Model the fold of this input.
Amino acid sequence: MIVLDLICDQEHRFEAWFASSDAFDTQLAAGLVSCPHCASHAVRRLPSAPYVQTSSHSKPVEPKPDPAVIAARLVEALRNAASQSEDVGERFAKEARRIHRGDAEERAIRGKVKQSDLLELIDEGIPVLPVPPDKEDLH
Done:
């Protein structure tokens, strides 16, 4: 394993572990390497010095990711996943139970559910994830 010093086109510096330099090159070419701060795929390797143990145990200060940016990315990813699922509307709770019991084909679904029904689904061990509505869905 090697640790590489990387930087994105937004000048965010970060480290990443790879099995080898070739593994890094392969993953970079496949678009699998991205900045943990801004998700940019425009990443390049920085020159790095060999590791030398010193008496100091302090780590370099890295910029902390903006929580608002992280939350926005998460919501966008959830909405994207929801857009690729079947909309079952008001039948969500019923259809989720049918899928969970094996009475219906397993597939990704979305729909509307009352909070009390959502809590019952969770209590029954049925995996559900509320996603905030998109701005266009509110009108």
